[in-house]
Amino acid sequence: MTSTSPATPLPVAPDPVRLLRAWTPGSGSWFSGPRGALLARGTRLRLPSTDADAVLRRLRELGDDALAVGALPFDPAAPAHLVVPEDVERADPLGAVLVADPVTSPPTGELRPDPAPAAYEGMVAEALARMAAGGLDKVVLARAVDVVADAPVDPVPMLRELARRDPRSYLFAVDLPTDGLRTPRTLLGASPELLLSRHGTEVTANPLAGSAARAAADPDEDRRRGEALLASAKDRHEHALVVADVAARLRPLVDDLEVPDAPCLVATPTLWHLSTTVRGRVAGRDVSALHLAQALHPTPAVCGVPREVAHAAITEIEPFDRGFYTGAVGWTDARGDGEWVMALRCGEVRGERVRLWAGAGIVPGSRPADELAETGVKLRTLLDALGLDEA
Ligand SMILES: C=C(O[C@H]1C=CC=C(C(=O)O)[C@@H]1O)C(=O)O
């Protein structure tokens, strides 16, 4: 018989929490999703090409267990960041595990919107004018907020706070290239959207588009808002454009593609989204998760329709380069398995600065003030993780 004396320490933290605690800025990258958590430490080598054939070939040379982690930028023509880590550890999903670390005090300093909120409304109006003129059906426009703090911002408590608030989301902290400087650069976030996963023959994509702010304090109002989103013709159209594009791009590569006729609702702590899970099977070993992610990216959930026209509109209308925001973060391995998550509800931390972004899909019928408000709610994910009240 075993007995527990009062002096016996409490059970150690569950495995995924230990993995979360093991991540430090500059040490590597950490991911967590419904299938599990992964910590990739160190850099064994940096892959010079992110061409999916070349990556798969290189990983196979390194061995059956080889894996590459990193980030793909929004602009597929910009350099991606893929490394083979020195060491990989996996754990169970964070799931509902309570990550109960104390929140450290919020940074002091300044918040600088880029552009100013009124200018963002002007950008939406510009997109609507382009749509009215013809040739553009949907475009996603983003805005940024810079936190310029008085002292270096520590991404560790931010990541733990993201995990505490939404342990079921796709959480990530990706170590980005530092261009020779010593200060680590981390992209971290809690994304609700799976771009693409491949596990064995099973392929899954989960496009989201169409959003409504939740009313967490009032369950009846919260439910009403979700139902209104599901019934909204404008949001259903915005969503359908994404699903059609994802299905069309997967069809040549994937067998038995299942595309539900209608979306369902998913919730983050702050937003309702329209969601469709698309599934299929991939028979060959040569079509990796990275191949499939690159075939889909950038979907109309982050770019628009038609893709090239929307991409040009984003470049012309947005006042900044998105970098890795609205790109994808994740991993791909020598077997072709992998998981790529949309880099949304995220921020880039470097020294005293944190840049946060949020975007919204614009279709005919969108209203500039509503889209501004929606991006404000999306920005809350990272502002809350920083302990900051205002946007
Ligand atoms: C571009 C973002 O969200 C995308 C993903 C889900 C819903 C979206 C929307 O309803 O506009 C966006 O397409 C963002 O969070 O910055």
Describe this structure in words.
With 391 residues, the protein is an alpha+beta fold. The chain has a single domain, classed as 4-Layer Sandwich (Anthranilate synthase), CATH 3.60.120. Helix content is 30%, strand content 31%. The protein has helices at residues 15-22, 52-62, 117-133, 155-165, 219-231, 233-250, 289-296, 307-317, 368-386, and strands at 28-33, 36-41, 45-46, 67-72, 81-84, 87-91, 109-114, 138-149, 170-176, 185-191, 194-199, 202-206, 208-213, 255-258, 264-267, 271-275, 278-281, 304-305, 328-333, 338-342, 346-350, 353-362. The longest helix has 19 residues, at 368-386. The termini are far apart. The structure holds ligand ISC. The ligand C=C(O[C@H]1C=CC=C(C(=O)O)[C@@H]1O)C(=O)O binds at residues 140, 142, 193, 208-211, 273, 301-302, 326, 344-345, 358-361, 378. Residues 140, 142, 193, 208-211, 273, 301-302, 326, 344-345, 358-361, 378 line the site of ligand ISC.
